[in-house]
Amino acid sequence: MKEVKLLGVWSSVYCHRVIWALKLKGVEYDYTEEDIANKSDELIRHNPVYQRIPVFIHNGKPIAESIIILEYIDEVWPQNPLLSADPYEKAIARFWAEFLEDKSPTFYSYFRAAGEAQEKLAKEAKELLHIIEDKGLGKKNFFGGNQIGYADICLGWIACWLELMQEAAGIKLLESDEFPKLLAWSKRFKQVPEINESLPDNDKMLTYFRGLRERFTAAPAP
């Protein structure tokens, strides 16, 4: 058994954040797929507070919450750093990660809603994407500059999950004429070999999101 283990779920972007970081660092790990409807004793034992994935276990010591796990990985394995050594650049990367964590409920609400409510939430989501594109990414190749880093990994669900969520939801957010820089970043992000090789299957993910969408928008039983 390797000294590094990850408890996760294949469809979770939070788990993929950890996987991407480990791949970029070249760290080998064991992976256990969890069933959220029937949580394992191992998951509950290692994350008794939240009882959710991902759980990262290093030398028998568990750590929860993806952005905390990312910082731990970056400190323990300093090769291919995710965060800049410069305190200001490090703070900016953390800011954008926290910004999206704080605003992500808007995107999830947009995905779950229908009709006028969904249209309103889609508008709010686009406003947030404009902020991320203009103020966060700007003219850079990646959020931290010329190479992939912490903020890119934290915002990676825009590139890999949101594009499929919007297809299942029926109202597109990421239009090429409206978000050219963000879509160009998305393409670069997914072309990074360590990211590309660990992306979930598109068709499987789209089927998953369509199933969720049907459940969220189904009329309640009389």
Automatic annotation (TrEMBL):
<dbReference type="Pfam" id="PF00043">
    <property type="entry name" value="GST_C"/>
</dbReference>
<dbReference type="InterPro" id="IPR004046">
    <property type="entry name" value="GST_C"/>
</dbReference>
<dbReference type="InterPro" id="IPR040079">
    <property type="entry name" value="Glutathione_S-Trfase"/>
</dbReference>
<dbReference type="Pfam" id="PF02798">
    <property type="entry name" value="GST_N"/>
</dbReference>
<dbReference type="InterPro" id="IPR036249">
    <property type="entry name" value="Thioredoxin-like_sf"/>
</dbReference>
<feature type="domain" description="GST N-terminal">
    <location>
        <begin position="2"/>
        <end position="81"/>
    </location>
</feature>
<feature type="domain" description="GST C-terminal">
    <location>
        <begin position="86"/>
        <end position="209"/>
    </location>
</feature>
<dbReference type="GO" id="GO:0005737">
    <property type="term" value="C:cytoplasm"/>
</dbReference>
<comment type="similarity">
    <text>Belongs to the GST superfamily.</text>
</comment>
<dbReference type="GO" id="GO:0006749">
    <property type="term" value="P:glutathione metabolic process"/>
</dbReference>
<protein>
    <recommendedName>
        <fullName>glutathione transferase</fullName>
        <ecNumber>2.5.1.18</ecNumber>
    </recommendedName>
</protein>
<dbReference type="InterPro" id="IPR004045">
    <property type="entry name" value="Glutathione_S-Trfase_N"/>
</dbReference>
<dbReference type="InterPro" id="IPR045073">
    <property type="entry name" value="Omega/Tau-like"/>
</dbReference>
<dbReference type="GO" id="GO:0004364">
    <property type="term" value="F:glutathione transferase activity"/>
</dbReference>
<dbReference type="InterPro" id="IPR010987">
    <property type="entry name" value="Glutathione-S-Trfase_C-like"/>
</dbReference>
<dbReference type="InterPro" id="IPR045074">
    <property type="entry name" value="GST_C_Tau"/>
</dbReference>
<dbReference type="InterPro" id="IPR036282">
    <property type="entry name" value="Glutathione-S-Trfase_C_sf"/>
</dbReference>
<keyword id="KW-0808">Transferase</keyword>
